[in-house]
């Protein structure tokens, strides 16, 4: 009985334990069911969030398989669900290849990626961000998130353009204020100086702008109502610009300044000061000058009268009243210009004209004439001869001078004086001059004509005919028959009234250019100019030009031949270096491997230089043979930037790239186009200081693609700009090495671009940087 009872207890204990375990399991199961429902609910929430999220996921596994969100497939315009890279559709081919290379590189390095890709069938732009995929995805998998940024990119471009325009306008305004030749300032709401320009600093002889602001140095040192702050307060109270004349000490000198204050909506005040001391001095000096002129005119024998801007008489002297026969009392009443002419006409002191109103209107136009001095001769009815000189004045008035030249005109000796002047002038001319009458006789000659032909003065005084001079001329000529040509030319000029010219050589080695010109009186003017020196110079210049062309050709041939000859040893050096690097001579020590790598790098650079030299020399002599193929301008620019990026990184330079969708495609030689861009970028890197900025922009239209490369480097001086495209010519700058130092880049670039039918333009300013624009036509195959 006790044994049975013990077994029963054991069974009961076991049953109790099972019941406890079952209860615990039920509790655990209920808890897990609750957790599962929470997980399911969370998954549904995440799925809902993912549906409305602006990004779409894609998983790229290490075996090349991909898993793409179905909404992303629709946005890309794909026809089917892709399983691998090759099945993925809807992206631009070049962008697709770039994305694939970026994903492969990130999967190996475990880094993240961030780039933009374009849709192949539309203008949509996707921003792709990727990082290693979390477990349970296999190692090497990448999780990519695609977000449609098309509208954002367009808006960002507009905002960037607006910001650039605003910054450019602000920068221009700031430079304009800073470069202003007069002091300018800005006062805050507390009317304390907050900004001054360089002219202000120089005016108060301060160290710099911060020194002026820190010490609150004022341009106007007056106190009370005339102080600078009081003037600014007056502008704020009036609500508009105020102007006042106040003295100021500028660079230690007392000057009169016009102070202008302009209130701003913010409660601040802007102002500027203009030095009017010279204007005041000039006004005073002008008054003294006008008075002195009037005093002088009143003592002149010539008649003088002056009219103001209203055409009323403002001054006259007594000789004018006498010559014009006008009453001085009437002139003191300041009559108008037209009334003065009418009164002079009544006194017969004006020339007789057919239409007096028109004649008077023409003289009234003297007030606004653009000529500085107007001269006329008035012949009066009584035979008097007046010389009139009219001078328009800056203030709109007119000054007139009257000179009585009656006696001078009547002098009989005037003609003799003119003849003597003419003879003296002829004798001192450089040319040999002679005048032949219509009958062929020598009418006039100068001393040089007589000396050239070695003729006697007595014989010339007999006025011989041209036929009588020919034998003497023939003896002096290398070609005696040319003397007959001179005779026929003189006859042709006098009879046919047509000019003629030619060249003759004398036996003493001199050369002359001669010309025969018909004169209005029927005579013929014969001139001879000694061109011996210019002839010799021309001959020497021709010989020098020929020698220079030959030297240039020899230099070009030598460079080309040397480049070909250098290729053979260079190929051997490169080949042996590659064998050493490949271990054909055994394993190399680390230091030796570094030397071999340096040799290979030097061989590569020298090979490129030789190719550039050959292209440059052959392009001039044989022309450039281009390979024609479709070229993606955007990809071309990116490859060129990637090539120079390491050199830019060495100098901590920032290379910015902006490629517009309009850059598109063109047809041409990919290698030479890429090298053209690289040459320009190499120059930009070489001639830009450390931490400089280099920018590449690409755009285009239906006819051409335009690539613009700019930098903020040292720039090129104006006198050096014509040399930048010369072969083997360079601008000497410290620290510049490589192809830029050899002067190959820009000449090659121009040669390649022009071979494609394009153009290259360069703009530069010393210390301001350089901009090179490449224009490539979109030629068809």
- Give the number of DSSP strands: 27
Average pLDDT value? 78
Which structural class matches the secondary elements?
Answer: alpha+beta
CATH superfamily of the largest domain: Histidine kinase-like ATPase, C-terminal domain
Name of the CATH class of the largest domain = Alpha Beta
Biggest β-sheet description: 5 strands, antiparallel
Strand content: 15-25%
Q: How many helical stretches?
A: 24
Apparent shape: flat
Oligomer: single chain
Uncertain stretches of 5 or more adjacent residues: 734-742
Provide the CATH architecture of the largest domain.
2-Layer Sandwich
In helices, the fraction of residues equals 40-55%
> In CATH terms, what is the fold-level topology of the largest domain?
Heat Shock Protein 90
Cα-atom radius of gyration: 48 Å
N- and C-termini, Cα separation: 113 Å
Can you describe what's shown?
- A hairpin with a 2-residue loop joins strand 8 (242-250) and strand 9 (253-263).
- Helix 19 (532-581) packs antiparallel against helix 20, helix 20 (590-621) crosses helix 24 and helix 22 (670-686) runs antiparallel to helix 24 (745-755).
- This protein has seven domains: 24-52; 54-148, PAS domain (Beta-Lactamase), CATH 3.30.450.20; 180-275, Beta-Lactamase, CATH 3.30.450.20; 281-410, Beta-Lactamase, CATH 3.30.450.20; 433-530, Beta-Lactamase; 536-604, no CATH class; 625-777, Histidine kinase-like ATPase, C-terminal domain (Heat Shock Protein 90, 2-Layer Sandwich).
- Helix content is 48%, strand content 22%.
- The protein is built from 24 helices and 27 strands.
- By secondary structure, it is of the alpha+beta class.
- The radius of gyration is 48 Å and the shape is flat.
- The strands form six sheets. The chain has a five-stranded antiparallel β-sheet, sandwiched between helices.
- The termini are far apart.
